[in-house]
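Feature request disguised as a bug report, sorry. It would help if multi-protein outputs had a clear separator. Right now it looks like this:
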Amino acid sequence: MIDCPRKNVRIGEEYQARIPQKISHESHLHIPNCNSKNENVTAILKVDGTIECTKVWDPVKYKISSLDYDIFCIVGEKNFNGDCLDLCLSLLHIFDYNPRHVYSIINPCLSAKGCNVVSICFKDDWSISDQKKFQKCIEIYGKRFDLFKNDLPSKKITDIVKFYYHWKKSNYYEIYKSSRPKMHTKF
């Protein structure tokens, strides 16, 4: 039997989580803080009796037509893998839901085989020479990121690790993996 510091089970009203009630669309129209008349506002009644309102979406503010959004999603789904599609949707949010502007940013990816998440995410931080040095370090040091500092002195170890995980999801990793000879073990 496992030795547990708590020998009894806590049962009762005082041990239960207090879940706030979700206010219906009709009732939040009468709340002073929530003056929006659309269902895109979520109002929650807190435990202390106060009401918290959060606007989830405002189509008037962003002025994006559903056709533009649908085209953007179709292009993204057709050309990108899941990770890059998430990145594209994040960029769409960052640039105030302007799909044409985001499309101009991601358009260079469309000419390559799929999306290069690494080049979009780290375009300003990692030059092409830094990326090549990184790949050389992977071949020499493996995942011993502290040794990468010799070849990439301007990068922090946290930046190198972040870059590694994005690189691993990119097409460059697939090319790198297929170019390496397969190691056979006797086990």
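(second protein starts here, but nothing in the output says so)
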Amino acid sequence: MESENPDDDHQRVEAAVEQKKRKRAESDKRYREKIKENTRNTKEEAGELKKKLETNLKKILLHWRGFGRTFDGKHSTCRKECRGSTSYSTEVLEGVPNPMESSMSLNGSVMSGSFKPYESLPDAYKLAFNELKELYIASEAQHTQEKVTLLELHALEMAAAAAQHKQEMVAAAARHAQEMATVKRECSLEYLVMLLYLFIFIFFLLKNIALRLMNLLCSLTHAQY
């Protein structure tokens, strides 16, 4: 009879569990690497978009500052000319605020007031702004879609790993049950063989005792005669 190790099945189960853990760790590692790569790509794209926006915004600010200086110079000249005409005109013009000061406040990249910079931009700047806006929206949509796809892929991988582990556990349980049944049959056969040997031993022992008793009786009988 082949010797069976009762710890083999437990070792196989532990190996299956360790394999599942390794697969789950590898899947999590791939998922984190994909997230990091997509985040890095998104950061790079966002950095490029930020640089483009800052460059275009600087151009726009320089354009409007030059326009403001020109307009302010013309406005000051007009006020000086009007002051020399009549006092009424001077009072009226002095009460009129500078449209650049009342409509636009430049503080870095912040504009406030009733002035609408986008509507006053040249067509080339509007086109560039719209292109950058569309590129940013498309990048955000792509990033969101990639994130959803990665989450779905990770869920599918985890489900496949769980299903495979379940199949391995069922197969291990079936092998264990089959091995235990084989061991029981072999033990039963060994028990029957041992009983048979014991019966034969008892039979020959009783036979030997009977022969000795018969010889003893015969010798006693001959001694009496």
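Even a blank line would do. Unrelated, but nice: Residues 8-190 form one domain.
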